[in-house]
Amino acid sequence: MKKLLILLASTMILTNLVAQEKPELILPVGHMGNVNTVCFSGDGKYVLTSSTDHTAKIWDAHRGRLLHNLEGHTDEVYSAVFSSDGNRVITLSRDKTLKIWNVVTGELIYTSPATIDGAILSHDGKIILTSSITGSGDSVNVSYSFWDIQKEKLTLLYNFKSAPDRAYLYFALSPDN
């Protein structure tokens, strides 16, 4: 009788545990192409990824859930970073556009008016240095522009062109900008 009561109690406990588990359908939400960049927001709440599938994505860093799918580029997104205040995301694509997005809503705030081939965000997050390449072969020209990013759109601060024999494709900003 004792064995029967133990068996009955065990069965009831297992039945209750199984009944409490609710089946959950989990669909794949990751990128459909190769991932190019991964970075954390300054506060560690979010993870940002960019991909060859023309998108960037903002993820909840603690739960691993997709928060926003940033769609709007027409080619590979090869760079994505958080602004220093953590409120915006800047993406750069092979479609030669730079886009600024709202982190909380995932809304597109701004698309660059100029063709942009490269960009770097200043350490304080207030300025973006961009490069644009024109021409080909021996007549390549690169123009560089400094943009103020503190407003809802980019404001051109300064623009200069390289000499044809001095076209630098890679650049960096010092810690004091």
How are strands sequenced across the largest beta sheet?
A: 1-2-3-4
**Global morphology:** globular
Q: Name the quaternary structure.
A: single chain
Which radius of gyration do the C-alpha atoms yield?
24 Å
Give the N-to-C terminal Cα separation: 82 Å
Structural class: mainly beta
Order of helices and strands: HEEEEEEEEEEEE
Helix percentage range: 10-25%
Major sheet details = 4 strands, antiparallel
Portion in beta strands: 35-45%
The overall pLDDT average reads 78
Total helical segments: 1
**Care to count the β-strands?**
12
Would you identify the regions where 5 or more consecutive residues have pLDDT less than 50? 7-12
Describe this structure in words.
- It is a single chain.
- With 177 residues, this protein is mainly beta.
- The protein contains one helix and twelve strands.
- The chain has one helix spanning 2-20; strands spanning 35-40, 46-51, 55-60, 66-71, 77-82, 88-93, 98-102, 108-111, 118-121, 127-134, 141-148, 155-161.
- The strands form three sheets. The protein has a four-stranded antiparallel beta sheet, with no helix packed on it. A four-stranded antiparallel beta sheet has the order 5-6-7-8, with no helix packed on it. A four-stranded antiparallel beta sheet has the order 9-10-11-12, with no helix packed on it.
- The longest helix is centred in the first third of the chain and has 19 residues, at 2-20.
- It starts with a helix and ends in a 16-residue tail after the last strand.
- Mean pLDDT is 78; it is low at 7-12.
